[in-house]
Amino acid sequence: PETITTPKEEEPPMHQFIRKILHEDLQKSNEEKILRLMRKLNWDDNEVCSVAIQHLAGGWRVRASARRALARLTAELAAWQESVAPAVVDAILEEIRVTMEDPHPRYNQRRIATVRYLGELYNYKLLDSKDVFTVLYSRITFGVTNDHSNVSPLDPPDNVFRIRLVCALLETCGAYFNSGSSKKRLDYFLVFFQNYYLFKYSDPFWTEENKFPIYVNYIYQECLTSLRPKIVLYTNWQECKDAIEEIRLTLYPEMGEEEQYDNDDQGEDSAAD
Amino acid sequence: KDKKAKAHRPLTKIILRRLPPTMTEEAFLEQVSPIPEHDHFYFAKPDPSLGNNVYSRAYINFVNVEDIYLFRDKFDGYVFLDEKGLEYVGIVEYAPFQRIPKKKKKKDPK
């Protein structure tokens, strides 16, 4: 139904140029040169500025091998153009949000690439660990019911892709969450992530004939054990729920029984101790 | 103690989402003006590669926290129209990323 054929408008040459140097030409070896070209753009022109930001945010458009170069270029450019870094991160977080509101699998490859790119941007300090955790927690909470009898259209039982997205992000930058508050944040997050995993895994949707995909199980285990080699994974959902209850009582003893735990602030508070 | 104070700094940057994709910055400002005292404003054009999910959005960093609530009461759920008369219901939320550009502008010698 969506085949309305409007003649494609020719992109302005400047847009084509930005797209070409960032998404086709850029690689590790010519990064300096392309950075110089990017610095020479007319950043006072709103149109140019907005197109440049969009393409700098388009980490999913580049080959995996050029992803880190694009992140580094963005970080270096941000030293000269102050508005670039927040605008790029804002654009990526909005994309992540929009593609959660529309959980269609057509975005899956893009979702993975985008989340890895965000991880790279964290590695170049364009965002804080707490921002990465905001994304991680949104993946395991947005539209998630934690109740098998209450099926969420945003996170249907057969959709296990969010597990892969969490793993992809942790794979990209999780190794840096190894000291101070970010280490604690990760430790807490991993409990909540296990909870989400076990919620998905134990869904009655999966049966003997229609098993939970084994490769997702591998990715999950590999991810957790490479981050925390000594981790003992919870094997059933109830066990994990009990552990979360314990965390809640430790961190928020004043909270009433019915209150939901507030995922996002776990690390924050423990860091302030 | 400093750490604690820092952790509880209030959120001041909001995002107004799901604006009409064809909306211009000027048209947006015309509709929402006057924006209460703010030190950062950024209007983002949509990402056309998102297929059916193409929207414009705007970011505002407010100076006074109280203004956020007033702004939200007015524009969360506010119906914006595009030039064809299609309705877009705006959503006001705290921006997930609270950083804004630093004020002082360095001149790039290039």
Features:
heterodimer, A: 273 residues, mainly alpha, 12 helices, disordered C terminus, B: 110 residues, alpha+beta, 4-stranded antiparallel sheet, two-stranded antiparallel sheet, 23% helix
Question: Can you give a write-up of this model?
Answer:
Chain A is mainly alpha-helical and 273 residues long. Chain A contains 12 helices and no strands. Chain A has helices at 13-25, 31-39, 46-56, 64-78, 84-101, 108-123, 129-141, 161-173, 180-201, 214-227, 237-251, 266-272. Chain A is globular, with a radius of gyration of 21 Å. Chain B has helices at residues 2-7, 25-32, 65-75; strands at residues 13-19, 38-44, 56-62, 79-81, 87-89, 91-94. With 110 residues, chain B is α+β, with helices and mostly antiparallel strands. In chain B, strands 2-3-1-6 form a 4-stranded antiparallel sheet. A two-stranded antiparallel ribbon of chain B has the order 4-5. Chain B is built from 3 helices and 6 strands. The longest helix of chain B has 11 residues, at 65-75.
